[in-house]
């Protein structure tokens, strides 16, 4: 029996897609299988390190922490070198004039006198009548005594020319001898006798020089070229 040609053509068209799908499924290998009609290549080398990335943006400041405990004080450091002097600053304006103060009282008491008589009498105050300085008149030329007007510490000194006989002289304070000086005269010569002392005096105290002993011990001498002097001055007053 003969089949029409048109029928065969239609049958081929229906069967062809099915066969193609089946063939395609059989040809594709499963990649999970060890043998899938292909062979895997050798592992590749590790790649190079990449370039560093860019810095990120600064983050926001966190909250301020609590104050920590004070640490132990360290040792004192060495003194630094003195720096160079700075430049002179501008000159300031003159100040206002101050109030006028009370004048300070200056304590003064001093004298310096010399002998004019050749041989003073013994056992009485020697009267020095040649005045070198006696501005406050605290030395009395009529009595030969210095009278204290300002309480304090005084310095007294005497320098006497000795001639013709020995000299024994003493400095008195309030009828009491304080210091003694003795000079033995050498014939055909002129000697010097001297002494000095610091004394504290109260107001009204008297100080003078006096020859003591017999009359042959009053060889104090003075003329136009030889002097015998007596002096004293206030060193510092009593502030009380």
From TrEMBL:
Tell me where it resides.
Secreted
The secretion signal range is 1-24
Q: Which SMART domains does the UniProt entry name for this protein?
A: C1Q (SM00110)
Species name: Phalacrocorax carbo
Superkingdom as given in the UniProt entry: Eukaryota
List the PROSITE patterns. C1Q
Please state what the protein is called.
Adiponectin
Segments of skewed composition (Basic and acidic residues): 54-70
Upper lineage is: Eukaryota, Metazoa, Chordata, Craniata, Vertebrata
